Amino acid sequence: MEDMENKTIFVDRTDDPQVNKFLKALHQAYNERVTNYYEAKGKELSRFIWSEKKKVFIYILDVFSDINSSSKTSILFAVPSKEDNKIFYANLVNETNNFTFGNISDSEPKARISWLISQKILKKEFTANIYNPSIFYTFFDFTEEYSLEYIKNPWIKKWVDTEYRSSLNDLKKSNYIEPFPTLGKKLFVDRYHFDEMLKTLDDNQFNDEFNECIFAYEHAKWFLCAAGLGSCLEHLMEKVIINYNKNGYPLLKRLGKDPTSRDYLNIFRKEPINLEPRQETYIKMLFMARNSVDHHNKGYTSKNICDSLLDGIRNIFNDYYSQSILSKNNSKGD
What we know:
Elements: E1 11-12, H1 17-37, E2 55-64, E3 72-81, E4 86-91, H2 93-96, H3 99-102, H4 109-118, H5 124-127, E5 136-138, H6 148-167, E6 179-180, E7 185-186, H7 189-192, H8 194-201, H9 204-218, H10 222-246, H11 252-255, H12 261-269, H13 277-292, H14 299-326
Parallel strand pairs: 2-4
Antiparallel strand pairs: 1-4, 2-3, 3-5, 6-7
Helix pairs in contact: 1-6, 4-14, 9-10, 10-12, 10-13, 10-14, 12-13, 13-14
C-alpha cells in the first residue's frame, strides 16, 4: 500500500511464511498475557485492543541507527483493523540516514515518528491511528526466526502492561492512579504522557500553570481546571509560534499584544504551520468547551470537558510542537 501524498511505501508481508509465523506468535503471546497474567475475561477484555478475535495491522519501519552495527533499528506499532491481522513493512533507512534523525535516540520511537511526520515521510492522518501503547523499537530483524523471542516477549509485555495501566482510570470501581513524576502530583500518566511533554518543553512558567490545573483536577474544581487548561492551551500554541520564530519564520510580530485564541488560530492557519480545516475546527471546539464550564455544571459533564482539554493539549504538543523545533527557514525572525 502506497501513500501517494508522502514518500512511504508499505509492503504487505503477511503471506511470507516466517512473517506469518511471527504475526501468529505475537497474537498468541498477547492473549496469554491478557488472560493468564491479568486474568481478564468478559467485559474486561474490552480494555485490550488485540484480545480474542480482534484485529490489528502491525507496522514495522526499518530506520537508520547511528549506534547499531547494522546501521538500522526497527520501529513497531499497531493500528486497529476491521480486516484480518496483517503485517506491513517499510524500509526507510535511506530516508532517515542523516544527522538530525540519527541524533534522536533509538529508544525514543515516538520522537522518531514525529520526525517522520515533520518530513512528510509519514502522513499525520495515518499516524493519528497509531495505538500508543503498542509503540516499540528493536534492533532485531523480524524476518529472522531466531529474533522471534527477542522481539515478541519484551514488546508484548510492554504493550499489554501499558494498556492495563492506562485503562485503569476508565474503570468505575478502580481508584488506581499513577504518580506524576515531573510535578509530584497524580494523574493518569500512561494516558496522556504529560511527564514527557513537560520535560521536552522545559518551561518553569508552563509547568507552574499546568501544576495548578492538575491540583484543581484532583480536587474536582472543574471550573478552575478548565479555565487554567484553556490558558495552557494558548501558552502551548504561543510556544509553537516562538519556536518557528526562532527558526526563521517571523510570526511573533503577527501575534500582537494580549492575543486571543482567534489570534493564535489565525497564525496557525497560515505558513508555515498550515493548520488544516478539520484541526482548526477541533481547536475551536476545545476553546468553546473551556468557555462552557461554569460553577453550576454537573461534575461528570465538567470532568469530561477537562479530560477533552487535556487530550487537546497532548494532541497539539504531539502534532505541532516537535515540527516547530525541527522546521528551518532561511529568512530571519523578529
